[in-house]
Here is the input.
Amino acid sequence: MKREKESDTEKKRRQIIDKALHAETRHPKSIDKANKQFLKEIQKSPEYRCTVCHIMMY
Here is the structure.
């Protein structure tokens, strides 16, 4: 029974860590990280269509 509780505790701890890491990658805390993430994303998909005026960007 104690092993099950330990594994549940470990699972919860891992979930908390994973959630924090995911939040950091989705919402960077520094401007430099945000700029790097932005540049990385626009390299994947260099064309973006504005949803308001439908002009192609990048």
